Amino acid sequence: MFEVLMYDGGVYRSAELYELIEDVGGVVINSMRSSQMLTVTMSVPEEDRAAIEELCTDIGGTVKEVPLAGTEIAVIGPTLGRHHMPHPICDIAEQLRQYGAISVVMGLARGRGKATAQISMDEINIINEYDAAVFMMGNFKSCIEDKKDLLEPLDVPLVLVCGPEPEGMEDVCDAVVSGVGRKCERMRTADERRKLVEIADTVVRLLDARRETLSEDPLYVHPAELKQLLETYEPIDMCLRPAPIVLLLGGLRVKIPYSEHREYLENLDVFGRRLGDIARIRPSRISDSSTIIEIMTVSEVEDRDAYRAEYGA
What we know:
Number of helices: 11
Shape: globular
Distance between the termini: 38 Å
CATH architecture of the largest domain: 3-Layer(aba) Sandwich
Strand order of the largest sheet: 6-5-7-8-9
Largest sheet: 5 strands, parallel
Structural class: alpha/beta
Oligomer: single chain
């Protein structure tokens, strides 16, 4: 069994941490450096956790469990304007990061107005690339209920966060967390901090259910194993964008252009198989500067192999 942990501390002696992770057969999921501070999310064997914790304490850092590691989550407001993009959205995104997720804040282009709010097909496709979405609405019950159409097309685990408790939203979202409306200040009080934890725990519950579903028909290769193979590819190794490879529950987001690197990715050898035979590779809907690799399940690969053996296609 592997456990996902997060190291939070300084860069001093961080090379020793990377070496120990490699020595125990672990994987670095994500590494973020800010000035002299370093955050490393890692997957390590359960029996080696004590050694990792001992080293992290010795070099002046802390270690904690991160249940959302290896996921990418969108936190959405109706617009990016001051009217709709309150401080709680940033606090929610930061809370999800504390749980190990890569969180992205976004707003709709035409989300403003109780009766005129819209969501475009491009926005739907972009949001559906993430593992989950947290949609933040405001303080008026009728306004929230009238914007139900914004949520209906989304096909990811969805948490609605709003002020009052709306009615009739059960069929368009997986969970509702009320008591968090628009406000012009950070969520600092004890009750507000508990609400942030409630939101994050709700996302954990939804993604744990998805992981359980995936375990019934597991992916042909784990995203972390594929990440290790891709890290040796020079364009990815030289990429200056934050987190050039982002783990998703069902695959990876690789921050290199699909059109330029499609042939290499499709022909990459993954334990004796072409990556193009065990995964669906396509450009990200955000832009062609990123590539989505959706790993097939074991049964999907077996069905494809059987079809090709029978029809030669």
